[in-house]
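Exercise 7.
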Amino acid sequence: MNYTETIHYIESRGLFGMKLGLETIGTLLHYLGDPQKDLRYIHIAGTNGKGSTATMTSAILTRSGYRVGLYTSPALESFNERIRLDGRPISNAALIAVTEKVRLAAEAMVRDGHPEPTGFEIETAMAFRYFKEQATDFAVIEVGMGGRLDATNIIPAPVAAVITRIGLDHTAYLGTTLTAVAGEKAAIIKPGCTAVMAPQEPEAREAIAAAAARLSVPLIEAPRAALTAVARDPDGQTIACQSDTFPDLKTFRLALKGRHQIDNCATVLAIVQTLRDKGFAVPTDALTQALSEVVFPGRFETLSRHPLILIDGAHNVNGIESFVQNLDDYFPGKAVRLYLGMLADKDIGHSLELLIPKAHTIATLTPDSDRALDAQAMAQRIQRDFGREATACSSIEDALASIRDDGTLHVFVGSLYLIGRVRTAFFQLKKLPGADA
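Solution. The predicted structure, written as tokens, is:
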């Protein structure tokens, strides 16, 4: 297969839908020689903050001299982003090679009478096989959805089982209460690991702590109270740290913006504490250097200063709450032109309640997904429910080309399927007058 054929094969696996459970992924990995059994893991579940936490953790370990695999989802612009080695996306050649191995294994298991693997199962197997071939010291793995029955949970006990902030999302699969959702996520905790918990609402905290206690697993809570933002600017924030666990960490620079990233950073510090307790060397200078440099595209990212364009993949209520808070912190009093696109199965009503009051003008876009709410339907809903005019844009390119440097903050927010295409289109489109991203 060439690269185009490889991507087509991966995308075509989506025809087999989404099936929660570990039997099929276990069979596929067995046909591949069970590569997942030979890796050292940091496993990260949660509703919000998984990607940021995984990215920061990977960057710190890489800076500390380890060989680090990182598996996250979804990709923002290119599938290669989902499987990384030492911060770099898998090369086209390596992607083609590992996809071919997994394809042959999948075909063999189907010939033997086993069910066809889903797309996510194929991709997860690719990551495990690649990380084993590359002899990684750590594999940082982001859970796809839930935890208990997510394909990534086929792994043995990780070094750290991390639970980021819990909220209500994917309720049809995970439950309609924080307790139920937290229970599903906490099922990545296994005997022999250390559980790490981000700041949580009381119901979620109790469920996670109970899961760890049942397995006699130590639980480390993120030291959120120890961290305070002492300065914010368009390129990040300066954090003061008062923690007995990190006595040599007084102030440091965090390149990721937003109060929610301080929560995620506190979770990362708890992961570092866990690693140090287990005898792994993570120097403080490596930690601070990594945090000052870390990049997480599509998350409260400034694409351009003139005109001022911001993108954010906030796609559920908790994420949009953080986004609105960050607008107030970083752009107080700024006139906002909102470009919005969401998936139809999200909590659109509550999301709009948070977003619409922040917008001076509103435009809608259709995310690149079969689950998308059409731009015209979104515009009509905004008019019906909030009495506000909204313009349905025919394309992302048209929306970008219409932007002028008039002092307005142009904000694209919503589904990552939308934000990834906005980012790609922005850097491809050369028609923006004065753009200096």
